[in-house]
Structure formats: C-alpha cells, structure tokens
Amino acid sequence: MSLPDPDSPAAPRTWTKSADRPLRSGRKSFGIWCMARALGVPVPWAAVRQTDGAALLAFEHDRLVALAAAGERVPAVLAFDGQHLTTSDIGTTLDRWLDAAVPAERLPVMCSACADLAGFHARGQWHGGSQTRNLTWDGARFARLDFEERLVPGMPLDLVQRYDALQLLLSMTRHLEPLGAGAVLQVLQAYARAGAGRVPDLRPFLQRLLPRLRAVLWLVGWSPRLRSSREARRLRTVLDGMSAFVADRAQA
Fold it and tell me: Do residues 100 and 111 lie in contact, with contact meaning Cβ atoms separated by under 8 Å?
C-alpha cells in the first residue's frame, strides 16, 4: 500500500450528479409553480415538475456543453453516461462569499453580479436558476452552475431573462436589507446600465409586480408578529427599492 505524496498537488475537485437522486416532489413543484405565477411569471407546469431524472440530467448536460461552446463560464463536463454527470468545480458560490465578506465589500460585488447577468443576457443566454447559490465569484470573474430548469422553449426568452434578474435580486435580499432601499436601487440600476438597449427592460415587469408585493405587505401588516419579522423588513426594503427604480426614468 502506497501513501500519497504530501508534496504532490491535490486532485482537482469534481462534482457528480446522478439520475437516481431524489427529484422535486409534487408538493414542492406546486409551490414553485404558484410562487412563480404570483410573481408574474407563468412558468409551465411541465417546466417545474420533475419526474424523469435521466431526462433532467441530459438537459443539463446539453446546456453546459452549449454554454461552454459559446464561451460562457460554466463547469466543464468531465464525464456523462446518461445516468451520471461529472463536472469540474468552479469555486466559491456567491452566497457563501457574501456571508463571509465584510459588509462594505458586499454591495459593489452584488452590483457587479447584476451587471454580469445583464451581459450574459445580452449575449442571448438565460440561466433559469440565477440565485446567488448558483453563481461563483473568484474575486475577478463570475461563473454559473446548475442548469436543470427547463424554461426555454416553454417560455419567451425575454420573460425568462426578467425572471433571472428577479431571482438574483430576491436571493440578495438578506444582504441588501441592512443597506436599505438605496442598495436595491443600485443593483437594479447596475443591471439596467450594463444591458442598456440589449436586454429586456425590467421596469414594466416590476411595475406590474409592485401591486402584488404591496398586497402581501398589507396582509402581513395585520399580524403584529409578522409585521416586525425579518422577512417583512426585507420585503419592505425590496419594495421601496423597486419602486424607486420604476420611478427613475433616467436609466430607461
């Protein structure tokens, strides 16, 4: 039996997904379907319901290959046999980076992430799961992972791109809330500036969403416990930031 050489470099980290892993339950699928529609995104039921692990894995494999061929920063496909997909590691996810960062460092990186997403969209791409847990940040560049969501061609590309932007914003709320509504405005402006004339305008989409969020906040207000909850504070901050963005036509 030989021992590992302590001076040799460690083997590169890899990740393997299996077609046999637990899939999204019917209850969770229904919850996602309802939530998306409540946010003004009519995601088809077939896009959220997961029943065939092999088909899901093949879809992600094809997307990763296509995105890599287009020059996008995604995990490299190392092996795929129809039942297992092995990919390279692409670093620390943005949500973990934000958790570890000092508060003063967070907003510039969140703005950069939104600008980077706008560039991704401007190149005709879409993510489908653009939350901070599915982005990585190495201090210089962002990369994307987890491409299981089958939203296109079932939905128009421009709507999926708006949904991407909303997912990214909402996944940042716990780090944006302490900074106030102005921080929400800044990340939305970063997306708008970076994609000006090349990505769908978020303002009409958010303008239609605002009354729904206000209704949720009004309902929450009936409960003293919920009214002062962390979730309500975050929703209030996002609502105020979105309202300021919709009203600000300077970047339109």
Answer: no
